[in-house]
């Protein structure tokens, strides 16, 4: 369980307050107006910006941990694939940046490539892949790290609608199979409805506790309604 207890996350003059919990295995969307602090929330949980207050995962205090030591993987819109490394090496980088993986490690790489539908494509270069396939490489890298908490910040916004749906369904399926807890920032109400039973509303300087996505979207507060154009 992710537990944020009177957490304050600051970026320059901006401060976001959060008191909420996300149960283990929960898939939660993060919705709210532009500039409301959705990315700030993920950056704070990931350890990339300053926080004050309580933040635990399964009772373990995350605050003192550097980003790489947290039980967290992140996937952002810019997938940051290395153009000069093969697909397999891009994925292996998620486990060991020096790429000394050994036979077992490379077997795991091949396994996760299979999980994301890229079986046998490990020797390709990223530039020779479609946008959707590149997203799958980034997802494979995250899966290989095998961290229980996955943070997604509009990871598939650059994809066309059909491909985006396909990737969301793949993430949902892999998250369920691996028992992951997922927080996903999105600008698209359809993404939230498809992917997440519950949604965290980020607005007015506050990340609100998860509430049922359907109910929130059926009767959105004014600032969310204006943003979603409903
Ligand atoms: N590096 C920074 N330094 C100072 N303030 C920042 C920085 N990055 C973001 N902010 C401010 O923090 C606030 C929240 O930004 P954030 O990117 O978290 O919003 P968001 O909800 O993700 O927005 P969007 O939907 O437009 O991506 C904004 O007021 C923004 O100007």
Automatic annotation (TrEMBL):
<protein>
    <submittedName>
        <fullName>ATP-binding cassette domain-containing protein</fullName>
    </submittedName>
</protein>
<keyword id="KW-0067">ATP-binding</keyword>
<dbReference type="InterPro" id="IPR017871">
    <property type="entry name" value="ABC_transporter-like_CS"/>
</dbReference>
<keyword id="KW-0472">Membrane</keyword>
<keyword id="KW-0997">Cell inner membrane</keyword>
<dbReference type="InterPro" id="IPR003593">
    <property type="entry name" value="AAA+_ATPase"/>
</dbReference>
<dbReference type="GO" id="GO:0016887">
    <property type="term" value="F:ATP hydrolysis activity"/>
</dbReference>
<dbReference type="Pfam" id="PF00005">
    <property type="entry name" value="ABC_tran"/>
</dbReference>
<dbReference type="InterPro" id="IPR003439">
    <property type="entry name" value="ABC_transporter-like_ATP-bd"/>
</dbReference>
<dbReference type="GO" id="GO:0005524">
    <property type="term" value="F:ATP binding"/>
</dbReference>
<keyword id="KW-1278">Translocase</keyword>
<feature type="domain" description="ABC transporter">
    <location>
        <begin position="2"/>
        <end position="229"/>
    </location>
</feature>
<dbReference type="InterPro" id="IPR027417">
    <property type="entry name" value="P-loop_NTPase"/>
</dbReference>
<keyword id="KW-1003">Cell membrane</keyword>
<keyword id="KW-0813">Transport</keyword>
<keyword id="KW-0547">Nucleotide-binding</keyword>
<dbReference type="InterPro" id="IPR050093">
    <property type="entry name" value="ABC_SmlMolc_Importer"/>
</dbReference>
